[in-house]
Amino acid sequence: MTDPGEMRISDADREAAAKRLHDAVGEGRITLAELEERLDVVYAARTANELRPPLADLPGALPGTVVPTGPAAAPVPAGQRVHLRTGGGSLKRTGDWRVPAALKLTTSMGSIHLDLSEARGVPQRIDVEVAVGMGEVVLVLPEGGTADVDGVSGSWGEVNSKVPQTAGTSGPHLVVHGKVGMGSLTIRGTRTGWWKTVLG
Questions:
Q1: 85 shares its domain with 184
Q2: Cβ within 8 Å of residue 106, ≥6 positions away
Q3: N or C: which end of the chain has fewer CB within 10 A?
Q4: What's the total number of domains in the chain?
Q5: Could you give the percent of the chain with pLDDT greater than 70?
Q6: pTM
Q7: Are 91 and 168 members of one domain?
């Protein structure tokens, strides 16, 4: 069996790595000189193993397609999902609540607000299926949380993720898929300080 690290990478993988390096400059993690050195390595890389060194010391940096973590996860059967739904009302989960590994969130004109930042025992990977009509879904992740929303399709609605897309090591990773009609899906990190009280 071929070592996953020896698998050939794509141009998209190199571009994703380059983008992470540029972001790291903006975050003050590396200097412009380091950026140039690391970009040379990234664009010369042919395999996943060769792409690791310039990204190894950056949080959540390695593209998921480059570093396989095992066999691809099979879709979660509908019967194993926890289904939270609301028509025109409001549904909230905050504080220390039991977060399942698979969720389905359905709202037509209401709102669903799930705050994972204070929950204990949060699964490392959470499969989230959304079905949003004209309503709103807000997911708040703890520090280090990431979310892949590429599986979400929308028509007139808005999908807004304010957290990294690539899975890291210090927080849960959400794999989100489904549909957003005329409503919105927002994924963000937790707010801290005085404005957490003001903005909620």
A1: yes
A2: 83, 84, 85, 86, 130, 131, 132
A3: N
A4: 2
A5: 83
A6: 0.60
A7: yes
d(CA 164, CA 59): 10
| 121 backbone φψ class: left, alpha, beta (φ>0; ψ -120 to 50) | left
HSE toward the beta carbon, residue 111, CA cutoff 13 A: 8
Run of H or E including 15: helix 11-26
Q: Which residues, 6+ apart, have CB-to-CB distance to 52 below 8 Å? A: 5, 62, 66, 67
Q: How far apart are the first and last CA of the chain?
A: 50
Domain that holds residue 49: 4-55
- 19-71 pLDDT per residue, tens: 888 888 888 888 988 898 889 888 888 888 888 888 888 876 555 445 433 34
Across the beta sheet with 125-132, the strand order is 82-86, 102-107, 125-132, 173-180, 146-154
H or E stretch covering 174: strand 173-180
d(Cα 70, Cα 97) in Å, to the nearest integer? 29
Residue 196 has pLDDT above 80, yes or no: no
pLDDT classification of 18: cutoffs 50, 70, 90:
confident
